[in-house]
Batch of 2 targets.
Target 1
Amino acid sequence: MDPLTLRVALAAVAVSLLLLSYAGVHRRTRSRYSMWWCLSLVATAAATMLYLFNGTDAQLIANPLANAVGTVSAACTWGAARALGGRTLGVWPLVVPAAGVFLASIADRPATNIWAGGWATLLAMVLLFAATGRDLWKLRGEHRDMGESPWAREPSRCSL
């Protein structure tokens, strides 16, 4: 498959997951973790759609924006993980990495380089996903010590 078809398919999958997550979980529970998950899916779909402008004149701004929005998507997964533990995320993990990625992408000649800022995007995403994993691992340990699992408890609440 060519990159354009793959991007359209990924955007369609993200939108489908968003509809299922929003209608199936968030509207019923109004939980913070499902809100963060829905925001992550919105950002993923938006970033993927922005990458569709590669090869056009709009690539100059669409590519750096797509990189920044993709970074916000990763930050939203961290917000979801923190929400499961009853913690908040704050604004800085959403703004600072995305702004850094946007600036790095702009500096990397996005008009002619479709991979402009790719290194910064991947680095930011790795760090944000590592933070997500760390919080989930910590949450797992906290609930294991208490003899319960949040993953066993939350789905049962949603099904009621």
Target 2
Amino acid sequence: MSSAFERHRVAWRAVGVPILLLAAACTSYVDTARVAYGDGRYLEVAEDLARREAEVSRLRAQGQAQYGMYRGLALLMLGDYAGADRWLAFSAETARLFPEALGPQQREQLAQGRALLDGLLKPAPAVVRASPQAQPASESQAGKPRRPVLVPHDKAKEP
């Protein structure tokens, strides 16, 4: 072998391999989170990604959008709605700024997570119930329909 080839091979090992390993390490934890989320291991996803939060800014747009999406979805499934809101919004904003950051299926997954979260955060609807004040006070009012009164859902009691 020529010495020039040997020098290139040594240079590749010294510089190229560590760069490839670094690039793989930057996205591997997001890929691991994707798989764990798909397996329903939400606590693992949330904890693993939380430990890597300081590294998010070093990811490319795709990694950032996926990081936010899987962390947000995992937190949503764990009932941490404020955390889910933060990370789903982060993912959506990253995808808005960099449209190639999420593929069509990931965009749909993000939209479904957002819709579920929005439904959970929406105030509970009021329940219509007849109040005692709306009862007829005398025989002359007995034929009139009772007036419904709105009662907040959290104060309504089942009959």
